[in-house]
Design a protein that fits this description.
about 425 residues; Neutral/alkaline non-lysosomal ceramidase N-terminal domain-containing protein; 20 strands; NEUT/ALK_ceramidase_N; 5-stranded mixed beta sheet
Length: about 425
């Protein structure tokens, strides 16, 4: 009898393993990218107003990855800019909705995360000559939206079978700090997709730090330290690489601003080295089945400045006593991802990860939207806290973070 039971158990284990292996083999991944440099003379986003580009240090990119497991599909897009707004995501979805991607695909399942470089174009409106006019170039935005939709379509046309592995480590102890408090998440999480020849198709790397080395130092186009990350990842691994910004609000910054441009690139290449090393010690993803859940939410707008900027056309968006945005929870096998629609304090990133089961954990700051700083309520209650006046001035209100977390909790529990 014992031998019979052992045989049954062994059979069930083998079947389970076979199913997981089959799931992993069903995953397909496609990726594409394009340069999205703004024209010389365009307004620079970040720091003071009325700064214009005089040249290019390195290219900005939009990068699109499409995932398909034979049942579910979605697209993950990164943009080298200060923060794409929700209404532009909706325009991209509208255009993708008219396309045939060759697979079952809903444009509602497009996720966009901005890298938040402060050496990219004004895509929000706040950095024109002054607060009487927007710094957004409508022609550039048309180009950006068109280019993004094209990359999603191209990525879908390049789908190929993929296996995935992941790794995690920490990085930035000697140059990244939370300049408001001690709390910080230094984790680096990387997920890699390989073709049947073992060659890199795509990697996704999640790390939290403002790309602001060049902010107010240079007037040239740059992805900041992220450019060094791109270059080193491509050099070592081939294929494409998406940088997924983390929870950088409250206020995760480089400590050594003012270093030469070559040193800025070395910071990014160091991040790449950390990601590559983590993968060498990494594990294979046991499952590659996809899931996707999202929810639109109305966030209260307590800060009248946001309403005034919208009313004046500086931010071309409907903002009243509430503003509509979106939060997404998706997974690739045991790798879980959640979006935050702005620059969230590290506490919200850590709380989000606590909602996730064991496995690779990704928090996408500036995901789906760029609604300024999302900080702890204490910053509204005590303006003597470091940088509290600035952070709260650039925030929607006191309870934004709590409402986002409640939405994420609901999505985490949904099946």
């Amino acid at each position: 009898m014992k031998g019979y039971l052992f045989s049954i158990i062994l059979f069930l284990v083998l079947v389970s393993c076979g199913q997981k292996e089959q799931e992993a083999q069903n995953l397909q991944v496609g990726v594409s990218k394009a340069v999205i440099n703004p024209p010389i003379g365009a307004f620079i986003a970040g720091d003071k107003q009325n700064r214009r580009f005089s040249g290019v240090l390195d290219n900005l990119y939009v990068k699109a990855a499409v995932f398909y497991d034979g049942n579910e599909s979605f697209a993950l897009v990164t943009v080298d800019c200060i923060g794409l707004l929700y209404q532009d995501l909706l325009k991209i979805r509208g255009k993708v909705g008219t396309m045939d991607l060759g697979i079952p695909f809903s444009p509602e399942k497009i996720v966009i995360s901005s890298t938040h470089t402060h050496s990219g174009p004004d895509v929000v409106g706040l950095w024109g000559e002054d607060y009487t006019q927007s710094g957004v170039d409508p022609d550039y935005m048309d180009f950006l939206i068109k280019t993004t939709t094209e990359q999603i379509q191209i990525a879908a046309s390049k789908l190929e079978k993929a296996n995935a592995k992941y790794g995690s480590t920490e990085y930035g102890h000697n140059w990244v700090a939370n300049i408001c408090e001690e709390e910080i998440d230094r984790s680096v999480t990387v997920l890699q997709f390989l073709n049947d020849k073992g060659q890199n198709i795509l990697s996704l790397t999640n790390f939290a730090c403002h790309p602001t080395y060049l902010d107010a130092v240079y007037n040239e186009v740059s992805a900041d330290y992220v450019a060094g990350f791109y270059q080193e990842m491509e050099k070592q691994m081939g294929g494409e690489h998406l940088f997924l910004q983390g929870a950088i609000g409250g206020w995760i910054q480089p400590m050594d601003k003012g270093v030469p441009y070559s040193e800025v690139l070395r910071r990014g290449s160091g991040l790449a080295n950390a990601a590559v090393s983590a993968l060498k010690e990494g594990k294979n993803l046991q499952s590659a089945s996809l899931s996707f859940r999202s929810k639109k939410i109305d966030l209260p707008v307590e800060n009248e400045a946001w309403q005034q900027l919208a009313a004046g056309g500086i931010i071309q968006r409907a903002i009243s006593d509430v503003v509509e945005t979106e939060v997404v929870w998706f997974s690739i096998g045991e790798a879980n991802f959640a979006t935050h629609p702005g620059e969230t304090a590290p506490i919200f990133g850590l709380q989000t990860k606590a909602l996730m089961p064991e496995g690779p954990q990704f928090v996408l700051g500036l995901g789906q939207d760029a609604l300024g700083y999302i900080v702890k309520p204490e910053y509204f209650e005590d303006q003597s806290l470091p940088h509290a006046p600035y952070l709260t001035r650039m925030s929607l209100g006191k309870f934004t973070g709590q409402q986002i977390m409640k939405t994420l909790e609901d999505l985490a529990l949904a099946k």
